[in-house]
């Protein structure tokens, strides 16, 4: 019998509102433009032409189509939100080098075996608000990979948020809490769990560290001192996207694993 996961109602309601507010646009689920562009560019960097890919939690599909425009990959893109999936089916697909197939599927019932070269997520596993469910989803995704295949997790982790909040605290800024519909992953527990599923960590990519430090620590401290409102996508904050990456100051990071 299917488990009753109360939090899934809350998560689906969140994405119902997101679907209404943003439609097919790339602003859906991510208001910060630098973050969105960096996520897509980094995912693309882990794919090669001809790869068969599974995207878990594709949302409205704007990112999926952008990826298939850049690389000739065969993508199966799944999501459990009926609202977002209906939008994904309407995405303009002109100019794609690869293919995208959008499917309604809860990752917690995913049953594909050894089918994909790459399985990736963009902030989906954090929507599973119990560690037991996160573990189950990760194990199902691991099983869906071919031997030698790669798992690319673009997810939020507790360690990066702790370092960010320590820096904010030094300047008297309040801590940033995870969004109400997210449970951040514990990096060490995630690595250990996936090791038991036959996956070896290849890379930790703190691709947003410098930008997040600049836009979520330096910028708000200066804006506050100057009596200005703090907002997303400020010209001041965008400067930090031009600097080389350093440190572990972002909750959002990429872990890359290879299946033995
Ligand atoms: C933060 S959004 C990101 C969506 C898309 N990747 C993007 O970047 O816009 C997370 C997505 O995961 C989906 N999701 C959450 N729980 C899921 C589940 N159990 N099975 C499949 N998809 C799920 C949500 O519906 C949502 O579209």
Helix and strand succession?
Answer: HHEHEHEEHEHHEHHE
Q: Strands of the biggest beta sheet: in what spatial order? A: 3-2-1-4-5-7-6
If classified by CATH, what would the architecture be?
A: 3-Layer(aba) Sandwich
- Tell me what portion of residues adopts beta-strand conformation: 15-25%
CATH H-level superfamily: Vaccinia Virus protein VP39
The geometry reads as globular
Major beta-sheet overview = 7 strands, mixed
Figure out the total of helices: 9
By DSSP, the count of extended strands is 7
**End-to-end span in angstroms?**
32 Å
Number of domains: 1
Essential attributes:
Rossmann fold, alpha/beta, globular, 20% strand, 40% helix, binds S-adenosylmethionine, 9 helices, seven-stranded mixed beta sheet, 260 residues
Task: Describe the model.
The chain has 260 residues and is an alpha/beta fold. It has a single domain, classed as 3-Layer(aba) Sandwich (Rossmann fold), CATH 3.40.50.150. It is built from nine helices and seven strands. It has helices at 7-22, 33-45, 62-70, 82-88, 131-144, 158-170, 187-196, 209-225, 235-238, and strands at 52-56, 74-79, 99-104, 116-122, 145-156, 199-205, 252-259. The chain has a seven-stranded mixed beta sheet, with helices on both faces. Helix 2 packs across helix 3 (62-70) and helix 6 runs parallel beside helix 8. The longest helix is centred in the last third of the chain and has 17 residues, at 209-225. It is globular. 40% of the residues are buried. Bound molecules: S-adenosylmethionine. Residues 11, 15, 28-30, 57-59, 63, 78-81, 84, 106-108, 122-124, 127-128 line the site of S-adenosylmethionine. S-adenosylmethionine (SAM) is lined by residues 11, 15, 28-30, 57-59, 63, 78-81, 84, 106-108, 122-124, 127-128.
């Amino acid at each position: 019998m299917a488990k009753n996961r109360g939090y899934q109602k809350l998560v689906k309601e969140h994405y119902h509102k997101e679907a209404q507010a943003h439609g097919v646009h790339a602003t859906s689920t991510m208001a910060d433009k630098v973050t969105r562009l960096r996520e897509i560019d980094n995912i693309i960097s882990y794919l090669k032409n001809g790869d068969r890919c599974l995207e878990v939690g594709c949302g409205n599909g704007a990112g999926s189509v952008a990826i298939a425009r850049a690389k000739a990959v065969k993508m199966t893109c799944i999501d459990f939100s009926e609202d977002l999936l209906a939008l994904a089916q309407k995405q303009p697909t002109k100019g794609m080098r690869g293919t995208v197939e959008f499917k309604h599927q809860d990752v917690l019932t995913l049953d594909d075996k050894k089918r994909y070269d790459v399985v990736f997520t963009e902030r989906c596993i954090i929507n599973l608000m119990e560690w037991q469910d996160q573990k189950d989803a990760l194990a199902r995704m691991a099983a869906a990979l071919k031997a030698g295949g790669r798992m690319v997790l673009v997810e939020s982790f507790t360690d990066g948020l702790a370092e960010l909040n320590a820096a904010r605290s030094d300047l008297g800024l309040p801590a940033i809490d995870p969004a109400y519909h997210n449970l951040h992953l514990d990096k060490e527990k995630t690595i250990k769990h996936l090791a038991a599923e036959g996956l070896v960590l290849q890379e930790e990519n703190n691709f947003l560290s410098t930008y997040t430090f600049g836009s979520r620590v330096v910028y708000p401290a200066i804006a506050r001192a100057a009596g200005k409102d703090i907002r997303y996508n400020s010209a001041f904050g965008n400067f930090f996207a031009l600097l080389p990456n350093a440190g572990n100051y972002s909750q959002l990071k990429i872990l890359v694993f290879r299946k033995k």
